[in-house]
Amino acid sequence: MIDEVLATGARVIVVNDGSTDGTADVLRGYARRGVEVVAYAKNRGKGYALSRGFDRAEAMGFDRVVTMDADGQHSVADLPRFVEATAVHPNALLMGRRTVEGEMPQGNTFANRLSNFWFAVQTVRRLRDTQNGFRLYPLSAMRGMRPLTSRYEAELELAVRCAWRGLPIVAVPVTVNYAPRGGRVTHFRPGRDFLRISLLNTALTLLALVYGYPSMLVRRIVRHHPNDQ
Fold it and tell me: By its UniProt entry, which Pfam families does this protein fall under (predicted)?
């Protein structure tokens, strides 16, 4: 996958989130080819990995970053769609949208629908695929925003906070390659992680009442009356 991205001419940042399977040895070879590698010893979760990746991208002078899962789910062939979309929507959070939900494992389908529901409650916007990690983040428009949660629910948190900040959110059609049943390695722990996600959604819903809705309303008023002082 890294070779495919390098072939497009894009700069690549790989965050090694505490892998213990020999990934570090492989990445040393890629580092000699110009790949930026961010590594740390202990698995800290996707939210932490995103924060470290964003920090490195900004330090390198980039104002946008595309995130892809390294397990082969996301297709490099879809990258041009994000490039084309960001040219039209330069300040938008671009979120991949799986084109065929029926290909999604049953557990993923339920979790995605639940996530879509809570996103709509918290932002008064509708998206069909809030759990897709294939995204383009407009770092300059996000102005230093980093996930407060360290695990995989950080992606939902970032989408909600971008909506509260008034950033456009645009869906980009993508394909997804799922591993055969039983062939995918995951750190997801159903009981503990669903509890943590439920707590996050409770917190985001409460914050929507006291901050999210008012801030979105103020931005809408200002946008409709830009010259009123």
Answer: Glycos_transf_2 (PF00535)
pTM: 0.90
What pLDDT, in 10s, does the model give residues 177-190? 876 665 555 555 66
What is the secondary structure of the chain as a DSSP string? Answer: -HHHHHHTT---EEEEES--SSHHHHHHHHHTTT-EEEEESS---HHHHHHHHHHHHHHTT-S-EEE--TTS-B-GGGHHHHHHHHHHSTTPEEEEEES-GGGS-HHHHHHHHHHHHHHHHHHS---S-TT---EEE-HHHHTT---SS-STTHHHHHHHHHHHTT--EEEEEE-B-PPPTT-------HHHHHHHHHHHHHHHHHHIIIIIHHHHHHHHHHHH-TT--
- For 45-181+191-224, CATH number out of 3.30.365.10, 3.90.550.10, 3.20.19.10, 3.10.180.10 equals 3.90.550.10
